[in-house]
Amino acid sequence: MTEPLLSIEGLTKAYPGVVANEDVSFDIRAGEVHALLGENGAGKSTLVKMIYGLVKPDSGTMHLHGSPFTPSEPSDARRQGVAMVFQHFSLFDALTVAENVALGMETPPPMRTLAARIREVSETYGLPLDPTRTVGDLSAGERQRVEIIRCLLQEPRLLIMDEPTSVLTPQEVAILFETLRKLTSEGVAILYISHKLEEIRTLCDRATVLRRGRNVGTCDPAQTTAQAMAEMMVGSAFATPARRDTSPGKARLTLDALSVRAPSAFGTSLKDVSLTLHAGEILGIGGVAGNGQDELLAALSGELPVPQGALRLDDTPIGRLPPQARRDLGLFAAPEERLGHAAAPEMSLTENTLLTGATKQNLSNRGFLHWPRAQGFAEKVIAAFDVRTPGPNTAVRALSGGNLQKFVIGREMAHDPEVLIVNQPTWGVDAAAAAFIRQALMDLAAKGAAILVISQDLDELMQISDRFAALNAGCLSDIHPTAALTTEQVGLMMGGAHDMEVAHV
Ligand SMILES: Nc1ncnc2c1ncn2[C@@H]1O[C@H](COP(=O)(O)OP(=O)(O)OP(=O)(O)O)[C@@H](O)[C@H]1O
Which residue ranges does the record assign to the ABC transporter domain (predicted)? Predict the structure, then answer.
């Protein structure tokens, strides 16, 4: 039996109204990939923040290599060999890779030495990255490599990764797993948070499951089915989404040869994009992040004005209408970035209902807000989407990532939209909640809504969408019925084979 690298004994941390971690104990061994599982709000982020010195436990102890470990801040944790790659990268777009890495170091070496070190680590660990490239030009996978290399330069003994594969292509996931395996062969331990259970079964040696802040057990993922792990997290069985029979209705939303410049320097311009979205269908748009997804959502939601005639809702040209005017016509949208875009972090859930629901739910009248009604609407969303929070007056920033996602998607769906555009609807959401959101989208389509789902999760799109297209460098592939597509054809569409022939059934 290997001596534990890190032992955690009875860690407890409470926030107002919620115990995020309660008496959590487990060990992490050198050279293992240890998964930390749990549904949204189970306390995973809180636990790793305590290990990384960002949050101080109320009680409990930790030992690193047998010595008491009480990191007072992240730099203290880093000095003792603990590194962390966050879900949200903290990089400056306008700086180079090497400059970004230097910013994270307490005493950076001269730039040439650092660039050489980055090249060396990048080659040793199979993470291709040029230190002189500007970060704004990098893909999500390459940005993540900057963060990983930044960590590896500190030669960590424990590397914590928070949902590292949610932004990666399948090929990038394979590269990352190779790197992690090399690290573990050198004795580094990896603490790995993810909701992707099949990946955990492939990669991880052990998994510890948190449920409502408590450790409910450790299992061997290779010997446990994904469904069994999901049920351990939730404490009960849950239903997987069931496809419905579809009969698409009339065309509702039509985008006609839209070309539009990206609003930001590092965005992607849309090139000659045409699509028709019908009542009662889900149209899935796949593709690797950064290929025009944000711009497409912005053009459809009204945040990015386009030529008036390029976008029509039924027969009405709406290209220049702002988001609120589109909502008045029944078109709602939920963007990918939940903090700061879909929701205002410092405002309460009740206040956040006003952002998109003021008119549709009659939450304001001649400029006066109707608070009881807004609160009632927030409570309805919380109940319908099982948002774990002490109540509607909680600030958005206090919600766990997955619970905020449930709130944002639930808020738009609760308006009973006629046309709904969503980007990454289940990003960071646990298996049971993802199944719930997917089922809710299918039910809404079955009631006649026209739904466009942009997602990087191909399995999700194959499961819920009736037709599928892929975005690549701002161009949209042809649109095909999902049921007729093979994985290989989908890969080709994502790679930019726009005029491939697909057998229609
Ligand atoms: N700063 C904070 N203030 C108040 N409550 C908080 C704070 N941070 C976390 N919480 C609460 O603690 C609980 C655990 O949250 P945590 O972020 O650790 O969950 P998680 O398992 O990482 O969830 P997810 O998978 O959704 O990211 C949640 O109920 C959350 O609302």
Answer: 6-237, 253-498
Pick one of 3.40.50.880, 1.10.10.10, 3.40.50.300, 3.90.550.10 as the CATH number of 4-234.
3.40.50.300
Q: What angle do CA 189, 190, 195 make, to 5 degrees?
A: 155
Atom of ligand 1 nearest to the CA of 210: 21
- Its pTM stands at 0.72
Q: Angle at CA 150, nearest 5°, toward 108 and 121? A: 100
The pair of structure tokens assigned to 127 is 């993470």
Distance 397 CA to ligand 1 centre (A): 9
187-238: pLDDT as tens digits: 999 999 998 888 899 999 999 999 999 999 999 999 998 888 888 887 776 6
Other Cβ atoms less than 10 A from the Cβ of 80: the count is 16
Mutate to test the pocket of ligand 1, among 22, 37, 46 (most ligand atoms within 8 A of CB): 46
Q: Which amino acid is at 162?
A: D
- Nearest atom (ligand 1) to Cα of 403: 26
pLDDT tens for residues 317-362? 999 999 999 999 999 999 887 777 888 889 999 988 888 877 777 8
Q: Is the domain defined by 251-495 classed in CATH 3.30.70.420?
A: no
Q: How far apart are the CA of 388 and the centre of ligand 1, in A? A: 9
Going from the Cα of 399 to the center of ligand 1, the distance in angstroms, rounded, reads 6
Separation of alpha carbons 205 and 199, rounded Å: 12
Atom of ligand 1 nearest to the CA of 42: 21
Q: Whose CA is nearest to atom 7 of ligand 1?
A: 398
Cα of first residue to Cα of last residue in the chain, in angstroms, is: 57
Same fold, 4-234 and 251-495: yes
Q: Which atom of ligand 1 is nearest to the CA of 39?
A: 25
CB 390 within 8 A of CB 16: yes
Q: Whose CA is nearest to atom 28 of ligand 1?
A: 41
Domain ranges of the chain: 4-234, 251-495
Q: Is 45 in the pocket of ligand 1 (CB under 6 A)?
A: yes
